[in-house]
Amino acid sequence: MSESVKKILIVGGGFTGMSAAILLQQQGVEVHLVELDKNWRTDGAGITVSGPSLRAIEQIGVLDQFKQFGAIFQNVDMFTSDGTHLRQIPTPAVPGSSIVGGGGIMRPVLAKILAEETKKAGVKVLLGHTYDSLQDMDDRVDVTFTNGESDSYDMVAAADGVFSKTRQLIFPDAPTPQYTGQVVWRAVVERHGLERPALFYGPNGKLGFTPVSATHMYLNYTEQQPKKVRLADDQLLPHLKGLIAEFTAPVIEKVKAELNQNSSILARPLEGMIMQRPWSKGRVLLMGDAVHATTPHLASGAGMGHEDAVVLADEVKTGGPVQDILKRFEDRRWTRCSLIVSNSKRLGEIEQTGGSKVEHMQIMALSMSALMAPI
């Protein structure tokens, strides 16, 4: 355990916050976690988890649970819209891990796995509240919570999401996430015999499926939508069916027949941002989507947060003054995270404009090579 960080507050009980809490508590740091949602829920459909992101999940110690409740697979199949097989893309082994391929899981299922592991590790969890004030006192951070309690910490790590309260507090001039002109549609359906992820290319878009359990997969389709609009719940099903009407592969016809109001249909406007350094001020650190929110084009949004947790725990274990720990954390994360955010954004731009397929392939190859490198 670090001599300078014996007690830490994690703000935010999402994937990043829980992952950091687990790893830090396991190495002997006293960890408190505060989460505003009293029910500690994570909404959403499925999530695709790349091989490098699974490597981080393995380091957090929940890979066995992921395998039990999610899906692990190798390779990706590519088809035309009518189901003609084009080719299969191999998924390589991930250096420094037991991972070969990738995975998929329901977001609420992964959240439950991490929440149970957080409690098992002995983290002190406060639900339904957040902080009222953070006061950096040079040798500690004094925190007052909305339930009236107060405490002091050697460090505060804020993983409070895309619209981070802490980012606004300590960096009021920091950028906020910007809409990218795309909306990603997701729905949960039966697997209908699909053994691995599949991509179907139509005249106007790409329809994908990722297994998330032994019986189900999730559908994903990216719509080009210049203006950010929100559809009423009763409009989601007919709109999604209209988007995928041009796809006629047999498995997709089965999916169309299955889709209904209970298919967990979600439409999420894609937003992204990368905050320039520093990501910390005094003893308060921002991490996860609070500083590097990315679109899902590289299936690495949640994975970047898991990696943040691994690196923070590693640097706390290495020790030294808090400011040195935070600087080393940023040194290790800045280039990797900024590359993923910027490359994901560029992939979206190419899709929107009908840009160069060669550039698209080059960016994908460069990004996957970077993700395979050690964290």
- Output the strand order for the largest sheet: 6-5-14-15-16-13-17
Determine Rg (CA atoms, Å).
21 Å
Instruction: Determine the number of helices (DSSP H or I, runs of at least 4 residues).
Output: 11
End-to-end distance, in Å?
A: 21 Å
Which range best describes the helical content: under 10%, 10-25%, 25-40%, 40-55%, 55-70% or over 70%?
25-40%
CATH superfamily of the largest domain: FAD/NAD(P)-binding domain
Q: Which topology of the largest domain does CATH recognise?
A: FAD/NAD(P)-binding domain
Percentage of residues in DSSP E strands: 25-35%
On the 0 to 100 scale, the average pLDDT is 95
Category by helix and strand content: alpha/beta
Outline = globular
Please describe the biggest sheet, giving its number of strands, its sense, and whether it closes into a barrel. Answer: 7 strands, mixed
Care to describe what's here?
The protein is of the alpha/beta class and 375 residues long. It folds into two domains: 7-67 and 104-176 and 271-372, FAD/NAD(P)-binding domain; 179-270, D-Amino Acid Oxidase, Chain A, domain 2. The protein is built from eleven helices and 19 strands. Helix 1 (15-26) packs parallel to helix 9 (301-318) and helix 2 (51-60) crosses helix 9. The mean pLDDT is 95.
